[in-house]
Write a structure and sequence with these properties.
The chain is an all-beta fold. Helices cover 0% and strands 26% of the residues. The protein has strands spanning 10-13, 20-21, 30-32, 35-37, 41-42, 47-50.
């Protein structure tokens, strides 16, 4: 399962704009250090997301970085 498959309970962005599922906030794919990712979340700076976690979820693994 990917985080972009879930609906956040709350989403707050500091600079406005919406969280983008499976793409960058610009008109391009999610890219980090030259690697393109098909799944993920694109957002502006200062973001808070909260997700309801079901008991069957055992772990959360993430790669976080700045898409330039």
């Amino acid at each position: 399962m990917f985080i972009s498959d879930l609906q956040p309970a709350t989403a707050t962005t500091g600079w406005g704009g919406a969280v983008k599922k499976d793409r960058s906030i610009g008109p391009r794919p999610l890219t980090l250090r030259g690697e393109t990712f098909a799944r993920g979340m694109g957002t502006s700076a200062h973001l808070e997301l909260a997700y309801p976690m079901k008991p069957e979820y055992q772990r959360f693994v993430a790669v976080v970085g700045i898409d330039r």
